[in-house]
Structure formats: structure tokens, C-alpha cells
Amino acid sequence: MAEQKIVLVTGASSGIGAAISSRLTRDGHKVFGTGRNASGVTNDGVTLMALDVRSDDSVRACVAGVLSKAGRLDVLVNSAGFLLAGAIEEATIQQAQDEFDTNFFGIVRMVKGVLPTMRKQRSGLVVNMSSLAGIVPLPFWGFYNASKFAVEGYSESLRIELKPFGIHVAMVEPGAIKTPLYAHPTTTPMPEYSPWRDRALKSMKHFESIAPGPDAVAAVVSNIVRNKSPKLRNGLTREGTILPILRRLLPDDVFANALRSNFRLDKEGS
Q: How far apart are CA 23 and CA 222, in angstroms?
């Protein structure tokens, strides 16, 4: 069996985070999963701890709790996040800030919380949950896209800066996954956007209905944790593999028109 690692997974109360926690526990690792009101031990053996990634104090307390119980921390998996759906103009500034406070600054807080320990150990792994939406701008997910684009740039710089300390950084970039993420909060609809927004979100719901479940993401994270030199970018699902390539190869207008067609934005009716 591979060497047991001490793992901290955010957003582990449901969806992708729960699947990752369960898989890594089955792999033989000691896993601490987090949620805003989480506590106890799951049937899979995951130790649950309360954490709000939007709070500096909560992050400090959580990391200190893991260290007091385990004595070290080998892997941080940043999985906490949510989706704000709707037109960019429809979103309030507060909604946009809330999206970034969880999806981006939540990762920043967690990384700052674990780095002193990992640097002292001269080893560690940070796995950030990005998305296909961090590479390809999906319509009517504007602020979610922006938060994941921020994760991409942050993770690239972080990987370079942490290399001298023996700390690895990797991202997971899923396409559509069947997950509670899609039970998303939405903006306040403006009738001017309704035909296009409604068609786009209906298409998203269809893609989600035929997508693989969170276990597909958990399998990728499991491979990253096992790998002594993980790749920076780890895509999965068909669209998560193909669309980034097309994004690089096609002219901007051609690619944008292809997205409009794929999401039925220029169709008439519902």
C-alpha cells in the first residue's frame, strides 16, 4: 500500500469534495473533510471538521485542529466553491464579491494557512479545483468563469514559487459533472437577457444530466496524490479535454460563434 498521507479537503460535505474525501480514505490516507457545519466521522472514516473558507479565523482554527490531531499535513485539496449563474449585468457587486470570496480567496486563505507547515516539512501538495470554465468562457457564468480564471493564474504562479520547498501544485479542470454545484444561486433576471440566458442555462442543465458523477473527479485527484511529480493541469470529461485545445487553435470570433451555437444562443424559441 502507498504511504499514508494526511489530507485536508475543503467542501467535503457533499458533491465533489465528499467523493474526493471518500476515495482518498479508501486509498489508505487519513482524510479530514470540511464543511460549514461539519463534525464527526463519516461511514467512510473521514473526519469532518467545521470550516468557512471565507473566514481567516475559521481557516486558522481548522488547520490548527488538523495539526493537533495528525501532527503534519501532506495534501490540501481545495474543493469548496459555488456557481453564480446569470448575465453579468444581472449580478450585484455583492454577489460577485461573494463568488470570489469562496471560489478564489477561499483557496488563498487555505494555502496561506497550510504553507508554514509544508515549508517546514519541505514537502506537500496543493490541489486546486479549477474548471473548464477557468479556460473557456462559458456564457451566463461570467463571475464563476472569472473566479476560476483567477484560480488558474494564481496556481501557475504558486507552482513556480513553491518548487524550491518541495511543494507541488496541481489543478483539476473538469467539464460538466453531475453535482449539487448546478443547484446554483442565480442573479435577479432582467427581461432583456431572458431568451439567451434561459436557453444557455437549459443547455447547461442538459449537459449536467448526461455528465459523469463526482467519482470521476475523485479518481483524478487520487492519481495526483499518488504521483510524485503531478502535472499542473489535469482535465477530464470529453469537453474538458477538447474545448481547451480548440480555444488555443481557433480564432477568437470563430470559437465564440461555436460556443453560441453549442448553447443555442442564436436559436428562436425555448
A: 7
Burial tier of 95 (Cβ tally within 10 Å: 0-12, 13-18, 19+) = middle
* pLDDT per position as a tens digit, 107-142: 999 999 999 999 999 999 999 999 999 999 899 999
Nearby residues of 93 by Cβ (< 8 Å), 6 or more positions away: none
Cα–Cα distance measured from residue 51 to residue 69, given in angstroms and rounded to the nearest whole number: 16
pLDDT tens for residues 162-218?
Answer: 999 999 999 999 988 988 766 566 888 999 999 999 998 888 888 888 889 999 999
Specify whether 130 is catalytic. Answer: yes
Active site residue 148: yes
Q: Is the pLDDT of residue 73 over 70?
A: yes
Residue among 126, 84, 136, 157 at smallest CA distance from 240: 136
Q: Say which amino acid occupies 54.
A: R
Tell me which of 144, 154, 155, 203 is the catalytic residue.
144
From the list 21, 22, 79, 130, the catalytic residue is 130
- Domain range summary for the chain, segments of one domain joined by +: 6-262
Domain at 6-262: CATH code? 3.40.50.720
Q: Check 5, 13, 30, 131 and give the catalytic one.
A: 13
| Radius of gyration of the chain from its Cα atoms, rounded to whole angstroms | 19
| Active-site pick, 58, 148, 154, 182 | 148
**Contact of 160 with 115, CB cutoff 8 Å:** no
Residue 46 is given by DSSP the state P
Grid-cell match 494557512, residue found: 113
Is position 22 annotated as part of the catalytic site? no
> Among this protein's residues, is 13 annotated catalytic?
yes
Starting from the edge strand earliest in sequence, which strands make up the sheet with 233-236, in order? Answer: 40-41, 47-50, 30-35, 6-9, 75-78, 124-129, 167-174, 233-236
